[in-house]
Amino acid sequence: MTIHLRAAMPRASSVNPEDRTVEAIVSTGAPVQRGGFIERLLLPGADLSRLIGAPVLDAHRNASTRDQLGVVEAAELRPEGLWVRMRFRSNDAAKAVLADIGDGTLRGLSIGYSVAEWEDGREGAQRIRTAKRWTPLEVSIVPVPADAGAHFRNGETTMPETETTVQTRAEMNVEIRGIAQTAGLTREWADAQIDADATPEAARTAAFAAMRQRSAETSTRTTRVEITVDHTDPAVIATRAGEAVYARSHPEHQLSDAARPYAYMTFAELARDSLRRSGVSVSGMAIEATITRALHTTSDFPLILGDAVNRELRGAYNAAPSGIRQVARQTTARDFRAKRKLTLGNAPSLEKVNEGGEFQSGTIDESEEIYRIATYGKIFGISRQAIVNDDLGAFTGIANGLGIAARAFENDFLANMVTSNPEMSDGQGVFHADHGNLTATYAAPNLTSLSVARLAMRKMRGLGGMLIDVTPRFVVVPPELETVAEKVLTEIAATRTDDVNPFGKLTLLVEPRLTDDEQWYVVADPASAQGLEYAYLEGAPGPQIETRAGFEVDGVQIRVRLDFGAGWTDHRAWHRVG
């Protein structure tokens, strides 16, 4: 069947040379292959607030003003897709591009956008990622568009009423099926439109309405989620590739099977691999350009560098020694407000109740100690030249030093909490005669001085006055007393009862940050008795790493952040001599 229609006569294009404007459909929401998944843009979910006035770029380049060809004057969603009107600049480069668009030798369009909400799903074995809420940020003129349906619009002029154009039903059916495929609609939907003798214009309107309905249903639909391992997840790739970088500078590290595909890859090779996964062509691209592009696009290359630095930093951080840390208890803080530690006294003693008598009320004493965590940090940069030169030392040296510095800061903090003898909630220092945990007269570690300290701890009483029997577990000394303490604590294989060392089960800890060689400490196990305590922000123990492409530094910037604090929660688990 042949259908005769009134139609508009198309011009060569919608280019207006005088106003330097052109109209275009810059996105139809068509699916695009992105590495290991298909990406779809849900057109009704587009936020156009930043598109009007946004730049028109030359192939997404934004390094200088020379890369901007014009601006977007107007934008709206239409049944056929995202429509814009662009005004080009008056310089020669922009005019040349506009002329090429007018004569049809430049046809490709692309958009840059940010995504606020993704919806993940699968169609068979294929992973689908749908951008439910997204914001277009720029429009680019490109040689090869990702969305094949994006095009410059033809202008329209009124044709005489006596003229007609002819389109066969078969041609219309083909166009309707193309509309259905672009909108992500089923073959059954297209067949229903064809059976109803719909025109392509009517089918476009119906497709747009169906897309709006699908978007509304998505917000209330119950979705069954299947948890699988995604080998294209940037976080997974960064972990594996970061391990491979770490292994290059640490040959003793045994690579996991998952990281072996990245073994011995240089920074340039990792950057090239990251760009490929992001859909960026690297054919013929120089090493310097490859690394620069990988640092300033949405590739996972900065994540890989951050993971490698984090491994170096953590290794050095965990290796730094400290004696004080071993006798302090680690906890977490939920926020940066004051951390309050409530200590309850003993329950009151039981009293005899005579026949028919009343039970007497009792009270439990309590005290509260307070400390809080704070944020400490530093930003350092790794230059682009170091990455181009594949300089592993730039990573190992800086990261190793920062790891050692972070642990040293914590250890210094803890040691200062001991040596400064801060006041507790009762107004007395931690080590004070009133607390019964101070031998004021110095004596080197020997059987007598250890016996005095142990006896004082054994007779320690709680808030209610009852004995709590604190058991000594560690002896903490400055380096000057290490040899003396070792001799006293060495457990002798005695043949006679009189030769048995009663302190052989105490553990010696040497803390070089203790500067007074006439002070040392006997401490209970922090797992069984409260004393010195340190805390990290919940979910972030130790130094945390964040990575971004550098602005102040031509390369990559890495920020190290530490949320840490310490304080005394009780004095009874420690005894100081001297």
What is the topological layout?
Elements: E1 2-5, E2 9-10, E3 21-27, E4 32-34, E5 37-41, E6 55-58, E7 68-78, E8 81-88, H1 92-102, E9 109-123, E10 126-141, E11 151-152, E12 156-157, E13 165-168, H2 169-182, H3 187-195, H4 200-218, H5 234-249, H6 267-277, H7 287-295, H8 301-319, E14 329-333, E15 339-344, E16 366-371, E17 374-383, H9 384-388, H10 392-419, E18 438-439, H11 447-458, E19 472-477, H12 482-489, E20 507-510, E21 520-524, E22 532-537, E23 544-549, E24 555-568, E25 574-577
Parallel strand pairs: 5-10, 6-10, 14-22, 18-25, 19-20
Antiparallel strand pairs: 1-13, 2-12, 3-8, 3-11, 4-5, 6-7, 7-8, 9-10, 15-16, 17-24, 19-21, 21-25, 22-24, 23-24
Helix pairs in contact: 2-3, 2-4, 5-8, 6-7, 8-10
